[in-house]
Structure formats: C-alpha cells, structure tokens
Design goal:
By secondary structure, this protein is mainly β. It is 4% helix and 45% strand. The chain contains one helix and 25 strands. It has one helix spanning 2-14; strands at 22-26, 32-38, 41-46, 49-53, 60-62, 82-83, 88-97, 110-118, 123-127, 132-134, 140-144, 147-156, 160-167, 172-176, 187-193, 202-207, 214-221, 224-231, 248-250, 259-263, 269-274, 280-286, 296-297, 305-309, 315-319. Strands 10, 11, 12, 13 and 14 form a five-stranded antiparallel beta sheet that branches. A four-stranded antiparallel beta sheet has the order 1-25-24-23, with no helix packed on it. A four-stranded antiparallel beta sheet has the order 2-3-4-5, with no helix packed on it. Strand 19 (248-250) and strand 20 (259-263) form a beta hairpin. The radius of gyration is 21 Å and the shape is globular. The two termini are 32 Å apart. Residues 1-17 have low confidence and may be disordered.
Length: 320
Amino acid sequence: MRLLLIALISWLALGPARAEWRAETVPTSGPVTSVEVRGTDTRIAIRQKWYRIAPATGMLIPAPAPGFPAVPPGGLSDGRVASSDGAIARAWLAHPTDRYRHGVLGDAIEAGSLVIERSDGRIGTVTAGADAVFEDLLPRIASLDGLDRIVVVKSYLQRGSALAIIDAESMRIIAETPPIGHAHAWLNPAGIADFDGDGTTDIAFVRQPHVVGLLQLWSWQDRQLRKAAEVPDASNHFIGSKALGMSWTADFDADGHPDLAVPSLDRRSLRLIAFVPKVRDIARIPLPARLATNIGSAGIGGRPGLVAGLEDGRLVIIRE
C-alpha cells in the first residue's frame, strides 16, 4: 500500500509518462526501392511489386502501382504533374534545358519554364529567365492569402537557388527568397502549413540539404516571404535522388498545430519538429540506417505513424 501511494504521488507530480516515438523494421520480401505518395495515399515498392500498410495491423498488403498523370509533350521527362480542384487545374515543368548542369536531381537537365492550366481553361507559361532554371520536379499548389499559387525552386546560374512563388492569375513570379549566393547551391521544400500558429501560411525548406542542412521557415505576409525561423541539422535529400518528399507535415504532439518530420543532416535519425510555442524537437528517433526514400503516412490503429525506406533496403515504420 505504501509503495502504491508513493507511485500515485509521483504520477500526480510528474504527470503520465510521455509516449516515446520509435522506428520499427518491417519484414519485407526484398529491398525497398521506392516510397511514393499521392495525397495521403502511400505506396511502397519492393523490387517490382507494390504494397501499402494495412492500418489495422501495420502489415504490408499488395496494392496497385501509384497512378501519376502523364507529363504533357514538352514537359520535363522526369517531372510530375501537380493537380487540384481549385483555381489551378494542373501545373508542370517544361522546356528542358542543360544550361545549368548541376545534376543534383540525377541528371543535368532542368526546366526552363512552368506551364499552368487554370480551371477556367486558361493556359499560361512562366519562364525562369535566361539566367536561371526551375531546378525541381514537382510544382506545389498551395493556398496563400486564400488564393491558389505555385511554390517552386528557381536556381540562378551564378547565384544558386531561391524559393519562388508564382501567381496563377497574372502568370508571373510575384515573390522569391534571396538566392543562396553561389552556383550549384540548392534548396528543397519540406512543408507548407501554418507551422508557427500566427494565422499565415509558412513554407519550410532545407537550405543545402547535402552539406549545410539548415531548415528555414518563411512566412507569407503581405505578398512577401519573411524568414520566421531557422533550425540546424536537417536534410531532406541526397545527391542524385529524385525523391524530394523526404519530409512529412502532421500534428505529432496533438496540440492543434502542424509539425514537421525531417531527417537529421546525416539522415540517421528522424526529427519531429514543433514551432509552437517555440522551436523544439518533439522527438528525435534513431534509425538503423540512413533514410533514403520519400516519407509516407502509416497510421496504425488510429495512431499517427510514418513509413520510409532506408539505404540498406529495409523498411521502417516510425510511430509512438
């Protein structure tokens, strides 16, 4: 009885034990070659077969290959078409060019322009300019100020990458972050949400995810991008990979605000980062090998979870 009373007093003083996040290896029939996400639907490629995670058991079950729309003629051959039910029906990268020759996404071909197809039938083209390219594979359609706009990586030939916002009404670039400052210095978007809880949309990206690994949060205010936060020790890409979705946005600490999952710079751990009431790690989960694929959703039993492939071919589920 005395020990029970002591335990009860300790629980009241300290509160219930916090749930711990962990990475669990999932048995597979071979190495994981890809994790692909379309909306919230996650598919996992093991050799040449596709699977998904059963939400009730966490087991792999066979699934059809993910269906992505074909890139229209003149589009970037390895690009993806973005689509929505809003003002922007479709958008894709086009006019392949080798004028930059960086190769960070697996080849030396980048996009010279971006094509926007609006839901009202209008089609327009936004060019990067002779001194730049769109060093990206998928335009991101996001609601900023209640209007659908496009977020894309623009890389200057001499000054490196910037994050660009494109207006689908005027068909032009309306805002950019400052370029990193020198050629072949790239950034990769990580998430778009109101991360810091101030009522405006934020765009998170990792500056130079291969060598610097600085996670930056830029807030969209008064039609301008303003830097709101910086977090060191982050990455969401490795050189040569076409997997740009090595991050995930969700409310991991159940406080009503979106948080960001992103690997550490060495990709040997996964960080769950909150920005409310201040920048902090909700958890830092060690991984048994470097993370090497996109991150997908793997909710099991009604609890949030993530799934990803590692560079040694293993599949892991990250959950509480």
